[in-house]
């Protein structure tokens, strides 16, 4: 579609630039190529860079192998019910990049995306690209979220983010405090306790979920019942839905359920959310029981929904019988304080989530808190799109297999945008119609 003359100071001119060569960016590349859209994929490191360099050693996908798929490509190994390791995810994504022949420029860091008449200029450390559309597929896990309270921690406590953690050998001996109890926090607490260290985990809002239910992986049920396909414009509060923590799951070979009860049984000390720091004293919220009760309530609602689906379709004889899980165990008087002068903490790990980095984006698309404003991945700035965010268009948007539907929708919108721009009179295309 491109036919514009090359301009001074511009490395290349294309119809679209895709920022990020993870699974979302590569899936978009395939869709654009199928539509004849000239484009380039810019990647600061290597293909699947985050999986290569920013994950802890034992991490596995939370989704089973049979669910690992991208447009025109899916898992074809001998262990469909297993869970890919980080190395296997890298191999899978790299294989996809080779299959689709994506025009990836590795080692190319985007430093600025700025709007110009008729499109955008994407500046990098290896030159600039002129385009009429840009897709931000750099992911939602670029920057760890670290609370302001981190600055008040007593000296002598080593701190790491989940992005920096690799394995227990990396840590000093002594007690570890894991702050955050979503999938990451639980997995790190479990691994560190198994290494022999005393572990405390600070728990706030969380989503409790069994690994298997009625003989099937919980992801099978979420997909079959239609929960993962629920759209962003079908929920009452999409802002709230996009902030829901990741479910407490682990992808282990034995398909085990990892929840707070399992940590309790291992001797992990479970406390409430880290609420404040006063000198050497860490203060924990008294809301632990309420958070656990709410997680249990939501879990049972999910199981009831699955059971209704089974009954309505009369397939109960094809799956195991219904079951319910013991309520989360909470001490009658959970501790509210920990004095590190008396009970030293060697390491604190922030498992408090991540956020995207849009410091390089110069377009009116961010709200007052620096969050991207978009309508299902379509930004108010014409020709600008995003991919891979939590519940972006569907509940499955942040999962690998969620890319297919989102890319189909957004690539169609992008192609329509390019065609509409081509059909404008010359004056309007140059900016005169704005």
List the helices and strands and how they pair.
Elements: E1 12-13, E2 16-19, H1 23-34, E3 39-42, H2 49-53, E4 69-70, E5 73-74, H3 86-100, E6 104-105, E7 110-116, E8 119-124, E9 127-131, E10 133-136, E11 143-144, E12 158-161, E13 176-179, H4 183-194, E14 199-203, E15 207-208, E16 212-213, E17 216-217, H5 218-225, H6 238-242, E18 247-248, H7 260-266, E19 269-272, E20 274-278, E21 281-284, H8 288-313, E22 337-339, E23 347-350, E24 354-355, E25 361-362, E26 374-375, E27 378-379, E28 384-386, H9 403-423, H10 426-432
Parallel strand pairs: 1-9, 2-3, 2-10, 3-6, 7-25, 10-28, 12-23, 13-14, 13-23, 14-19, 15-18
Antiparallel strand pairs: 4-5, 7-8, 8-9, 11-24, 16-17, 20-21, 21-22, 26-27
Summarize the structure.
With 434 residues, the chain is an alpha/beta fold. The protein has ten helices and 28 strands.
Describe the structure.
The chain is of the alpha/beta class and 434 residues long. The chain has two domains: 12-142 and 356-432, 3-Layer(bba) Sandwich (FAD/NAD(P)-binding domain); 145-350, FAD/NAD(P)-binding domain (3-Layer(bba) Sandwich), CATH 3.50.50.60. The chain is 27% helix and 21% strand. The chain contains ten helices and 28 strands. The chain has helices at 23-34, 49-53, 86-100, 183-194, 218-225, 238-242, 260-266, 288-313, 403-423, 426-432, and strands spanning 12-13, 16-19, 39-42, 69-70, 73-74, 104-105, 110-116, 119-124, 127-131, 133-136, 143-144, 158-161, 176-179, 199-203, 207-208, 212-213, 216-217, 247-248, 269-272, 274-278, 281-284, 337-339, 347-350, 354-355, 361-362, 374-375, 378-379, 384-386. The strands form nine sheets. Strands 1-9-8-7-25 form a five-stranded mixed β-sheet, with no helix packed on it. It has a five-stranded parallel β-sheet with strand order 6-3-2-10-28, with helices on one face. The chain has a five-stranded parallel β-sheet with strand order 12-23-13-14-19, with helices on one face. Strand 20 and strand 21 (281-284) form a beta hairpin. Helix 1 packs parallel to helix 3 and helix 1 crosses helix 9 (403-423). The radius of gyration is 23 Å and the shape is globular. The two termini are 22 Å apart. The relative contact order is 0.17.
């Amino acid at each position: 579609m491109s036919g514009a003359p090359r301009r001074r100071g511009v490395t290349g001119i294309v119809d679209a630039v895709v920022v990020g060569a993870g699974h979302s960016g590569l899936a978009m590349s395939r869709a654009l190529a199928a539509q004849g859209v000239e484009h380039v994929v810019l990647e600061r490191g290597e293909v699947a860079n985050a999986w290569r360099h920013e994950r802890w050693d034992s991490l596995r996908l939370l989704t089973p192998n049979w669910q690992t798929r991208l447009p025109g490509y899916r898992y074809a190994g001998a262990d469909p019910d297993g869970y890919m390791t980080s190395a296997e995810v890298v191999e899978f994504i790299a294989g996809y990049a080779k299959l689709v022949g994506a025009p990836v420029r590795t080692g190319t860091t985007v430093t600025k995306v700025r709007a110009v008449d008729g499109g955008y200029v994407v500046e990098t450390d290896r030159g600039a690209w002129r385009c009429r559309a840009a897709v931000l597929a750099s992911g939602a896990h670029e920057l760890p979220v670290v609370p302001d309270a981190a600055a008040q921690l007593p000296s002598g406590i080593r701190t790491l983010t989940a992005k920096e953690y690799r394995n227990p050998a990396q840590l000093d001996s002594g007690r570890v405090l894991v702050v955050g109890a979503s999938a990451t926090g639980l997995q790190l607490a479990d691994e560190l306790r198994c290494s022999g260290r005393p572990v405390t985990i600070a728990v706030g809002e969380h989503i409790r979920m069994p690994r298997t239910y009625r003989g099937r992986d919980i992801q099978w049920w979420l997909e079959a019942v239609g929960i993962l396909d629920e759209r962003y414009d079908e929920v009452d509060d999409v802002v709230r839905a996009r902030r829901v923590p990741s479910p407490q799951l682990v992808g282990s070979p034995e398909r085990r359920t990892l929840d707070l009860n399992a940590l309790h049984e291992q001797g992990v000390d479970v406390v409430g959310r880290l609420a404040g720091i006063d000198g050497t004293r860490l203060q924990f919220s008294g809301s632990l029981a309420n958070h656990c009760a709410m997680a249990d309530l939501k879990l049972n609602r999910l199981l009831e929904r699955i059971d209704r689906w089974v009954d309505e379709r009369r397939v109960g004889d094809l799956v195991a019988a219904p079951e319910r899980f013991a309520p989360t165990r909470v001490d009658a008087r959970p501790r509210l304080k920990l004095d590190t002068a008396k009970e030293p903490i060697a390491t604190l790990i922030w498992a408090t989530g991540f956020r995207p980095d849009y410091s390089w984006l110069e377009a009116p698309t961010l709200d007052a808190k620096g969050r991207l404003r978009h309508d299902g991945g379509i930004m108010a700035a014409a020709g600008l799109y995003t991919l891979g965010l939590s519940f972006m268009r569907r509940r499955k948007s942040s999962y690998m297999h969620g890319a297919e539907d989102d890319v189909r929708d957004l690539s169609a919108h992008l192609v329509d945008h390019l065609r509409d721009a081509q059909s404008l009179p010359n004056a309007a295309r140059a900016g005169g119609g704005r």
